[in-house]
From TrEMBL, chains A, B:
It is an enzyme of class 3 (hydrolase). Residues 104-566 form the Amidase domain. Substrate binds at L210, S236, I257, G258, G259, S260. This is amidase. It comes from Tulasnella calospora MUT 4182.
Length: 578, 578
């Protein structure tokens, strides 16, 4: 067992209240100034990177080099290559067994991080020295006591930009916050990571507003996908997607209110987990709409193995996060459920082939077919999931995202004079011309939300009439988005990810189908579009466009059943790998 | 084991959405009309009661008869008297053992209900025949099968007016809703009660707006305390308080967003339990501000024993309420915790002697002293609880109650032209002249709420430095209000009850000190008031005023620890009865 956190150390939001609620400036901004802020911010990052010149690539590849995923490993020794290909569970075991030191592990990941930044533009704040000091301390501790400080002893963990890390800036993709938001305190998740022995060394890019499934902002620019730089690594935790899939980090912390952990995991070929609201600590995040709780986001892990997702969750709850943050549910982690001990032998899965709005692109349909075949072969049941009003669900959740008509986003941009990036323009267009809702109007929207949740619960329950197990289906398999990693600024449909936020159901994303080989698909395959949205999304379909894009699936479970979702993931992976 | 509910039967809020959001009338109301609605409603109730003329008191006592608590039993046989003095657990056992039939149990309680109505004005809707039909059905079922249908087989349960009971009006203390709100569906809590074998037969009074700790409305008038009719039975679940303390019901269902279960339990000498938000089903309630979730109420039981509180909670979760209502937390009931199996042998309690705003009246201070002595004698630890900003907490929660500036309440009254009762005037005075908040303003209030919760969590954690157990205190003992059952329309301070709603901590109220004997106290005892509120509350203090008022205490636990709270209650009761 590890030490418990100081129990008087509960996280207070006072800090944010006093500093981070932006008020529009009273004088018109100098339009030249915002670019200077961005330049300064990027110069600082470059200056930090330049300390590690020997770790940088000998030559930055030209723009037409699309796949940089191997290139980023080119400065590593064989031993370092081995390290960065381990998952977090294996790394912590190897450090515990003194196969590797925390210092050499961190250096290996830092080397790749430098290269990943130079090729995909995925990081924001760099604090390798602080990480190395902590790694040395941990190595000495293990040497001296023979004990690890916690379950993550020596594990490098990367942190999404808007999550507070003491001493680091929290610009969060806003010019006006850049250099003005150095955190005085760690977020609760960061606090626990440190106590558990994790080594922090880098923060990663997120998009302007955070309300975007790609990653682009005026502070640091656009983050690209290491497997195909014409494609997005996803967002809003896209810096994590690009960094971890480059092997620059074994585990990252993201956040998800509409797909922001799962989409970057899917588009970057990673594992990503969105738990139910309030199962993991969530206090200590900087973002717009702080205090809005009509629809709430979650913190969760991105990693390179299913077991690492559990390692993250188990660690958070081992430290009794509910004693540090009021909102966290006191539901201790049920490891025996993840181990499958309580799982029925024969499971019943439903596949969501098509949400009724935008049919998924061919590689995703093929992947679901493969999952079905594998699960049937393993003796499980597979039925079709009847989609429940994905368009209506989107229309509702986007109102909840923009209750103030988008005013706070616009005000925050106006403070610095920075323009909206395309992703921001697109999401704000959903509230174009609409004033902020009144308080009673928000109550009606909440009722619509609860009504939708009630219908969805009944809908899931009703599958009992279509299964042979005597139970409703255990889980739903579906894509994370209608496309694989998308060409930049083209994201138009969140209905395969935000749907599960509206319903607050846990969802895990996992790489199952490798990376796209265009030769396996017909370039001319088309659907007869049922609507303008589907037409637009399908106009993108061309296998060459998506060359090298990872093929992932998503598995959805019932609320508060995080452990069962991970247990089912083990079953699905076993079947699909058989 | 009992049957599970139909899993496709999740509760939908659609019904309420379409019918119950009032819109102000376009024409000025006829001021005469509202009294006609009230007359009609009361005549209907009287007509229903008149069917049971032989059960009514031979003579309605005159107004100067203050204590009617024995009188209401005067029409009962010895056997019936024995029945109505049993708690719910004993009743269900006796029916299961065929000592009593469900029919004779119900008739005993109906007899008292009739008398309780004639003496305290505590009920709204009467459906004895429906109850008797169900009781007969249950008796036949047990006779035929030898099995009970569920854990509440044959138990009469009374339901607070604003909780939907299929086929019954839900006037909820509003003239405009009277006769217009016949429920098409049961609330989830009612649904489970029925499936568990409970027998429904009566609904009970709540105040206009529900946001009142007394019980008075223009539809049915004022509800009074059976132990002293000059006093209030509390509110908003005050009909339950008066009915159950009269022995007209063994168990009632109330709701609590500021003290509305606990205050009537305290002022009526009963057990009452406010669980954490979302541990018990809550869907299917009619009230103003539907959809508001900045501060949320809960459903909970009022009863005559501690074990009955558990019976209620255990039953709700045995039927997997989370499969019927999305919001309910999937935390199964932990009976072993209630049994004390996980409880440390030596507990540490903190006593909140004075919240720093209004010092409790002398009988409550004496009762806490008695609790302290008893707990110390039983080997437990008792320290002082340092109150945390009760005035600030109240100022915040009352803003959350009235985010729209009280507009919806006023609009609902305006629709019928009925006047505000004094309790409504008092609560609405907190938003007098203030417009509705804007959406961003509500976000800031939510942040203040979270900040307060964070400070309170740290505050509780920090007691570890003052205990000898190595743990923070296990529970807090305090009054439920600064006074015993109060003279009508005098309630001015919610700080001992609403504080725990703001913090979402479970709280149980229990009768510990019998009923007030004025001879035991000095009439002239006074405090030097620290503020106008304290002056006002203490100007009421005179032992004669509170003659016969029950003396109860409140026990607060940590969030989501309902089972531990009930386990600690057993310890406290055992110590105080020793």
């Amino acid at each position: 067992m590890t030490d418990k956190l100081s129990t008087s150390d509960a996280f207070s939001k006072d800090f944010k209240l006093s500093r981070y609620i932006p008020t529009p400036p009273s004088t018109p901004p100098d339009l030249a100034q915002w670019t200077q802020v961005a330049e300064l911010k990027q110069q600082t990052r470059e200056k930090n990177l330049s300390k590690y010149q020997s770790w940088r690539l000998d030559q930055i590849p030209s723009e037409d080099v699309l796949d940089v995923s191997q290139l980023v490993l080119s400065k590593l020794s064989e031993r370092e290559r081995a390290i960065v290909h381990l998952d977090a569970t294996a790394i912590t075991a190897a450090i515990r067994e003194r196969e590797y030191t925390a210092v050499e592990v961190l250096i290996a990941f830092c080397k790749v991080t430098v290269a990943a930044q130079d090729t995909t533009n995925c990081i924001t704040e760099i604090f390798f020295e602080e990480g190395l000091a902590r790694a040395r301390e941990l190595d000495e501790h293990l040497q001296r006591t023979g004990e690890v400080v916690g379950p993550l002893h020596g594990l490098p963990v990367s942190i999404k930009d808007h999550i507070l890390v003491k001493g680091q800036d929290t610009s969060t993709g806003y010019i006006t916050w850049a250099n003005e938001t150095v955190a005085e305190k760690d977020a609760v998740v960061v606090d626990i990571l440190r106590k558990a022995g994790a080594v922090l060394y880098v923060k990663t890019a997120n998009p302007q507003t955070l309300l975007c499934l790609e990653t682009n902002n005026n502070v640091f620019g656009r983050t690209v996908n290491p497997f195909n730089r014409n494609l997005s690594p996803g967002g809003s935790s896209g810096g994590e997607g690009a960094l971890i899939s480059s092997h620059g980090s074994p585990m990252g912390v993201g956040t998800d209110i509409g797909g922001s952990i799962r989409v970057p995991a899917a588009w970057s070929g990673l594992y990503g987990f969105k738990p139910s609201v309030a199962r993991m600590p969530h206090a200590g995040l900087l973002g717009s709409h702080d205090g809005m709780d009509n629809i709430v986001g979650v913190v969760g892990p991105l990693a390179t193995s299913a077991r690492d997702l559990e390692l993250f969750c188990r660690t958070m709850l081992q430290y009794e996060a509910w004693l540090l943050e009021h909102a966290v549910l006191e539901i201790p982690w049920r490891a025996e459920v993840v181990e499958g001990k309580t799982l029925p032998k024969r499971l019943s899965f439903a596949i969501l082939w098509d949400d009724g709005v935008v049919k998924p692109h061919p590689p995703l349909v093929r992947e679901m077919q493969r999952a079905k075949k594998a699960l049937l072969a393993a003796g499980h049941e597979v039925i079709d999931w009847q989609p429940l009003e994905h368009k209506e669900a989107w229309d509702l959740i986007v109102k909840l995202y923009l209750l103030d008509g988008g005013q706070e986003y616009r005000d925050t941009l106006k403070m610095s004079g920075e323009p909206a990036v395309p992703g921001t323009e697109w999401i704000l267009s959903h509230a174009a011309g609409r004033p902020a809702y009144t308080v009673p109007e928000t109550w009606k929207l909440n009722l619509e939300r609860e009504s939708f949740r009630a219908r969805a619960l009944a809908h899931w329950n009703s599958t009992v009439s279509r299964t042979s197990t005597g139970r409703p289906v255990d889980g739903i398999i579906c894509p994370t988005a209608a496309t694989l990693a998308i060409p930049h600024d083209q994201t138009r449909w969140w209905g395969y990810s935000s749907h599960w936020n509206l319903l607050d159901l846990p969802g895990v994303v996992f790489p199952s189908g490798g990376r796209l080989n265009p030769g396996e698909f017909q370039p001319v395959e088309r659907v007869e579009p049922r609507n303008a949205l589907e037409k637009e999304v399908w106009s993108l379909w061309n296998p060459e466009t998506f060359k090298g894009a990872p093929i992932n699936l998503q598995l959805i479970g019932r609320r508060h059943n995080e452990e069962k979702v991970l247990a089912m993931l083990n079953i699905v992976e076993k079947a699909m790998k058989a």
